[in-house]
Amino acid sequence: MAKRKSKPVKVAVLALGRSGWNIHVAGLRNDKRYKIVSVLDLDHNRRKQAEEELGCDSYTDLKTLLNESPAELITVASPSVLHASQSIQAMKAGRHVVVEKPMAASLGEADRMIQTAQKEGVRMFVHQNYRFKGGYTFILEVLKSGKIGKLTHIAYVNHSYSRRNDWQCLRKFSGGQLNNKVTHPLDQLLALVNSPIRDVLCDLKHVSDAGNVEDHVKMLLRTESGVTIDVEDSSSAATTRHAPQWTLLGTCGAMTIQDGQAHLKYYDPKKTPKLKVNPKPIADGRQYGNQDVLKWKEEELSAEGAVAGTFYDAVFKTLKKRKKFPIDPRQVWEMMRVLQECRKQNPGFPGK
């Protein structure tokens, strides 16, 4: 007997800007598992383009859209400050929600979003899509292989220099480097270490952008398991020789990644004699050190792992096939907690 084909998931996309149009609409418009039936935007030309190209209805008011649209899934791609309110409104109307990162402008808003999804019996998918990219799955594969041993420290560095003057530079829209950029690598980092954060030290600076939010972030984290995390993400760093984008230190090796290439250096502890302590308080020949020689292995690899699918592949499997979604909103909540602590340590920036 042939399997019954699922009907497409009917989608409404809120806001047709860079994320809404170039990421969400672009990813859904030719996917037969989904059908964009409605859009919302304040700009007439954007709505007209969507109507002509997608054959959908368009709206300027969310309440009206929720009353009239048959959409089962609402994709919230509006400015960050609207993520929580629009997601909650959609979920209270019985719709599932995809919400762009950051999921909310504050930890309190994130709490209310999670509670609303539970109360209404709907699903909320936070668009932390970098978890589905090959660069992330590659790091995960290396850690699972045990080549560099048990992870002790992980660092992420991203430098660029620009002078932005769009809405992402304004506090009233929840703009800034933390919300706009750091949410992707920080989500990956927290998933890789898989341990709650115990300590946070963060410095935020406003250097080159217009507006009144941070464009430079330095963050040091310590997990309950003891692994440390170092994040430096800056659009005000005019460096010409970058540090590796990723650095992972383990108990028997390390890995760095730059420009899509990974370098691994490690040894096999099972083939290495156990090192014993010399308890004598007087060093032999007034020299420190020993004759320990490690048989290092080095590898150069493309830092691209297996990709099991896309974010919307996983959304479809969850909605139609009742598969477990790989990103739990509670995991993203932990990131929101870290971001809140960063803001508390830097008075004058949004979210204090």
Describe the structure.
This protein is α/β, with parallel strands linked by helices. It has helices at 18-28, 44-54, 62-68, 83-92, 107-120, 134-145, 177-193, 311-321, 329-344; strands at residues 9-14, 34-40, 57-59, 73-76, 96-100, 124-127, 151-159, 197-205, 216-223, 228-234, 246-250, 253-258, 261-266, 297-302. β9 and β10 (228-234) form a beta hairpin. α4 packs parallel to α5 and α5 packs antiparallel against α9. The longest helix is centred in the middle third of the chain and has 17 residues, at 177-193. The chain starts with 8 loop residues before the first strand and ends in an 8-residue tail after the last helix. 37% of the residues are buried.
Quick summary:
The protein is an alpha/beta fold. It has helices at residues 18-28, 44-54, 62-68, 83-92, 107-120, 134-145, 177-193, 311-321, 329-344, and strands spanning 9-14, 34-40, 57-59, 73-76, 96-100, 124-127, 151-159, 197-205, 216-223, 228-234, 246-250, 253-258, 261-266, 297-302.
Topology:
Elements: E1 9-14, H1 18-28, E2 34-40, H2 44-54, E3 57-59, H3 62-68, E4 73-76, H4 83-92, E5 96-100, H5 107-120, E6 124-127, H6 134-145, E7 151-159, H7 177-193, E8 197-205, E9 216-223, E10 228-234, E11 246-250, E12 253-258, E13 261-266, E14 297-302, H8 311-321, H9 329-344
Parallel strand pairs: 1-2, 1-4, 2-3, 4-5, 5-6, 7-10
Antiparallel strand pairs: 7-11, 8-9, 9-10, 11-12, 12-13, 13-14
Helix pairs in contact: 4-5, 5-9, 7-9
